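user: Here is a favour to ask of a fellow structure person. I have my own habits and do not want them to colour yours. Could you put it straight underneath, so I can go through it closely?

assistant:
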Amino acid sequence: MKVPQIEKDQINATFSENALKMMKKRYLMPFDDGGQEMPADMMERVANALALVEKKYKHDQKFVDQVARDFFSILSNKEYTPAGRTMTNVGTGTPLIANCIVLPIEDSMESIFQTLKEAALLQQAGSGLGFSLSSMRPADYETKKSRGRASGPVSFLRVYDTAFGTIKQQGRHGANMAMMNIHHPDILDFITCKKVEGDIRNFNISVTVSDEFMKQVVEAPDTQWYCDFKGQKVKPHRVLRYPNGATYGSEEVDITARELFNMIVEGAWKNGEPGIVYIDEVNRTNPLPGLGRIETSNPCGEQFLHPYDNCNLGSINLAKFVSDKQVNWDRLKFVTRTSVRMMDNVIDLFDFPVQQVTDLAKNNRRIGLGIMGFADMLFQLEIPYNTEKGRKMGEQVMSFINREAHQMSQELAVEKGEFPNTHLSIFAKKKIKMRNAALTTVAPTGSISMMLDCSSGLEPIFALYFVKQDKDGVKYNYMNEYLEKAIARLNLSETQKKEVMDALIAGGSIQSVSFLPKTIRDTFVTAMEISGEDHMKMQAAFQKHVDNSISKTINLPNSATHEDVYNGFISAWKLKCKSCTVYRDGSRMIQVLHVGKKDNILSTTSGFGASQSTEEKATAEDTSMRLDMDRVRLKPRVRPDVMTGKTYKLKTGYGTLYVTINDDETGVPFEVFASMGKTGGYFQEQSEALCRLISLSLRSGIKIEAIIDDLKGIRGPMPIFTNKGLILSLPDAIGQIMAEHVTGAREMEHVLAKPDGQEALPMMEETKVATIADTGFMPGCPDCGNTLTMAEGCISCKACGFSRCG
């Protein structure tokens, strides 16, 4: 199939500047002559390459050409798109893979490190991975071969995290999921392993809970909870560790089901982790029971899979199927059936770096057909998201897609043959011939929804108006196109239009604009204006007609209580959801997204009452206290003309760092200087400012141990693993060099005198674990610097398409 250039030009003109920018970076193939594809070129490439698969099934060229035209039609109309890896790699000669894969970790050193090797290869190719830690023996259990004691699953989780962080530094990586069953004795260790925000940063974590546990929480919450490992009933363990993380023992814990559940709730309330998975509900709809129970999912929780299984994803853009407030069901049927054929053809081209993954892909032929643009569909239908009518529409559209997808799979089974593992599936007993073991899911759609300029997944829209800024500082104002059309139909005065825009600019919402019709205000609600219960009910409505699961974030206001999360998790179980992830607005040290003006965003380090004016706080008592303090403030020592010291070289995520530390006449550090090698610019000025303040503190008599303690553990957006260990940031690097300088001097002299000749300084204490105020998820995208959003269980950038999960 050859698409005329005039048609391509028309298609290319429909893509926004923001979408084109993201696509050039992620999806559009560069040419050998230095040029690059445009969107229509990419779609032509994908359509033709996937249509050629039909020749394998003995279809003639006429049939192949028609299939290519159908594929191109649904792509160019922005009605459907495969996942990003397919759009990027198909037809380019690059091996084709899927993003979501589950790998096994059995209870042996051989399995742990064989899986790590396979995971590294898949991570390098860009796959997202899921792991269950439930088979690994608990900490402090006997290890027969080494005649020692096990360090426990969380210790190996940290090994994996470090390895994946290193791969991440090489520019290609995928996200990861780790799960542990509530019955595992080390469950307490697992629940709290990410208590420090930013720790184990390359993994999402979720606890898989059984019906037995949930019933005990509901019916007998104050009874002791017992774990079960390989048939042995035991109390949960508290793992005892040295400050460096090494395990030295364990102790049994008396804990009730309610108390254990509250630990999960506390973590979710505090920073969104762990998530919770209702694993018995997952297995009630397991399409391949002959392969055993399912224990974990891919990184964002929408694909629960057996070991080595994987899923090919794609999404239908529901925003394109509404005209005159009516759904075009005929076109949706065509697009659903065409996309199933397209996704099935993708599987024939899979070539993973781990053979077991390729084999199981072709034996199970799973696809995950999902949706996006649902919020945009509701806007056009004038149906509020947080209503029974909205949920009915969600259930209706997902039921329709699921039914048509299954019907198409049955037709393809007749045309091309059943999936090889049919005898292990639920379809064998029903005597139904299927081409695919499973067909529907709702996956995150961060970059592909940005490509098609639609809302993501089944999520409500985050804001109706927002500002995007590119790396050159150019700002672009974006207003929801459906709201813009709705307001244009009203005869508003210029004053009223300005009031609407002022409200949108201030907070991305129109709820405060009282003169707007109630129907418009009810229809155009945003994620944070919808209750957690309504979020969950929508997820449950879709789940009724989804083969696998759903990636969705239950957004809660900052004022949400522990009880809200507690009741929400129980409600999700009763509603037969397969998983639940909550995010309480502002619960992380650094908020991932703000809407509104920059000057009305409260600093994340400010406490309550920060908006109070200085004049209101400056009472006479305060003034008196300040005068008293002036008399005791420290004054820095004068610098001698000549000083001696050492210069250290250390690699960081921002470039090579050179740090010089000069000592005074007694051998105590007096001043610190830093330079950034060839990097310079922003990071040079930051390191210079930091070192000036460090030097000022040292000259004022502040203990160097206190300074080191504050610097070490601060996490930046680009940590890096070096021969001296993990370097988290520039402050962390300088802190580590200062610690090395001090301890090196002590090895020779054993003590350090104070500058004023007082008693010797005590030996430096162990660095404290970084608190939530020292770490945190980065607010800025590592690729373009714009703000990040949390939705569909993943952190992503709406400006360039970066995704932590992809």
